[in-house]
Amino acid sequence: MKRVQFSHPLMPYMLLLPQLAIVGVFFLWPAAEAIRASFYLEDPFGFGSTFVGLDNFKDVVSASEYSRTAWFTLIFSAAVTFFSLSIALLLAVKADNVIKGASTYRTLLMWVYAIAPPVAGLVGVMLFDQHIGPLNDLAHALGWNMQIGVNYFDTAFAMTVIAVWKQIPINFIFFLSGLQSVPKSVQEAAAVDCRSSSRRFWTVTFPLLAPTSFFLLIINITYALFDTFGIIDLVLKGEPGNNPVTLVYKVFLDGFRGNDLGGSSAQSVILMILVFALTVVQFRMIERRVHYS
Amino acid sequence: MKRSQFWDHVILVLGALFMLVPVVYALMTSSHDAVSIYKEGLQLSPGGHFVDTYKQVLTEAGGFTKSVTGLTMLWNSLVLGLGFAFGKIIISMLAAYAIVYFRFPLGTFFFWIIFSTLLLPLEVRILPSYEIVQGLGMANTYSGLIIPLIASATGTFYFRQFFKSVPDELVEAARIDGAGPLKFFIDILVPLSKTMIAAIFIIMFVFGWNQYLWPTLITTDESLFTLVRGMKQILQVWIGAQIPDTNQAMALAVLAMLPPVLIVVIFQSWFVKGLVESEK
């Protein structure tokens, strides 16, 4: 906080009022409602609800479908995070390296950031389409009989490719800015000491990128968990059937399609705990970084 | 040195193509007619139906939607993007100003309440949010579409960081000159924050324009559909058709990506600065 501050009996409250009103009505109330509903069993015809303690959680966790969804979410998140981070890092290192055309490459590699996930999903579905999609033709030429929407693995593959494509730009932007902030003197000193540029990268540059990488790791996990909703919804075309879905998609399916309010809320609360843990880890890392810099 | 640079360029060109080609497919396919796409697949070269296709999706209802034109959806996207960006900036600047520049009882308490919103994204509290907003009679309205999205404190967090970096001497000088808190805010702090406001505006506009889950739930009336929200409808009609209007579907996808992409490319340096700085 500031050393010098204003004091005024009413003004700070008036300044805060709009934000607090919105947070209260559209955040605290629904969040509290989600937690409350997770302990109740809602009558399907809307005639009240009964307190059932932790039953909703037990039902959710013991359902075989939930563990299948959880496993898929884990593998999907790991794949999206790994591939989008490593491709972006490779491209950022190269873009930091070249002298000619550096700014053109930067623009060409970052603009996809602005495309919405469902729009990427629509274009992706068409590229993977069995009749008109060039990616499907390519797969066939390689002897892969790809069937998006029918085959579990093929659908998961398409989701992952689209999600990685959409996520590369933001990782690229952060890695590049991280690389550009590595002091020139450090790079020159390293170049004198070590001729192998790949060893130089892994022993000098990469450790200096660690804070950026860690921050991006959290951002990417959050993205894979939540922001891929639009991609998944489009790839599944609203017909999940036996196809892979993520945990967030399942909250939506059970709550809005299945009308299982208690179950959906219990799943929400489980996700809240997960996000809470991720955010706490992220804040602690940021604090540490500020402390050392 | 020369040799290694060559391979750097090869990798960068491949990377750029990987990002570019899907969108080139979308753009080029939108300039062909539905029958030839159905026969020959997606296209990578320009066709002769560019103007017809875009005129049709922009001005004619029917096809993918029953009652609205692409122009209406474009307008709704614009309302959402701009409304969200302006609303967020105004509300979060005021709140951040109160938090950083005033000492008052409950200040810390309010600070934590506001920042607790950073912990839980909309997706995990989606069902109760929907029920509450619907109960307030805000379903199928612009305010129901925009205001609940503003509840997250990202903007407040960015402005708080920025205000904290503004030198204390400015407040002292303002106080000596007899300027009150309101005058200090309008005459000194807002002009100082110009670049920050611009950067956050770009990020928030793109974020608002690209919203999907919330609009999907809260707008069931087609006249309030945004382009991004319309994507699933478009895909479902496309799947159901005998000879699908792939050109028109791609044209709508291109329209949905064009404004945010243009803004990000044109204001690239502000955007990157805002994005990278705000995360520190």
Please describe what this structure looks like.
Chain A: It is found in: Cell inner membrane; Cell membrane. The complex is a heterodimer of chains A (293) and B (280). Chain A is mainly α. Chain A has 2 domains: 11-51, no CATH class; 57-292, MetI-like fold (Orthogonal Bundle). Chain A is 74% helix and 2% strand. Chain A has 13 helices and 2 strands. Chain A has helices at 11-37, 55-62, 64-97, 102-110, 117-127, 134-141, 152-180, 184-193, 197-208, 210-227, 229-236, 247-257, 261-292, and strands at residues 40-42, 49-51. Chain A has a two-stranded antiparallel ribbon with strand order 1-2. The mean pLDDT of chain A is 88. In chain B, helix 1 crosses helix 14 and helix 4 crosses helix 8. The radius of gyration of chain B is 23 Å and the shape is globular. In chain B, 49% of the residues are buried. The model of chain B has no long low-confidence stretch (mean pLDDT 90). Chains A and B meet through helix 1, helix 3, helix 4, helix 5 and helix 7 of A and helix 1, helix 2, helix 4, helix 5 and helix 6 of B.
Compute the separation of the termini of chain B in Å.
35 Å
The total count of strands of chain A amounts to 2
Main sheet overview of chain A: 2 strands, antiparallel
**What is the total domain count of chain B?**
1
The average pLDDT value of chain B, as a whole number, equals 90
Count structural domains of chain A.
Answer: 2
Mean of residue pLDDT of chain A?
88
Order of helices and strands of chain B: HHHHHHHHHHHHHHH
CATH topology of the largest domain in chain A: MetI-like fold
Which CATH architecture of chain B would you pick?
Orthogonal Bundle
Identify the CATH homologous superfamily of chain B. MetI-like
How far is it from the N-terminal to the C-terminal residue of chain A, by CA?
19 Å
Count of extended strands of chain B: 0
CATH topology of chain B: MetI-like fold
Subunit structure (chain A): The complex is composed of two ATP-binding proteins (UgpC), two transmembrane proteins (UgpA and UgpE) and a solute-binding protein (UgpB).
Family (chain A): Belongs to the binding-protein-dependent transport system permease family.
Membrane topology (chain A): Multi-pass membrane protein
Function (chain A): Part of the ABC transporter complex UgpBAEC involved in sn-glycerol-3-phosphate (G3P) import. Probably responsible for the translocation of the substrate across the membrane.
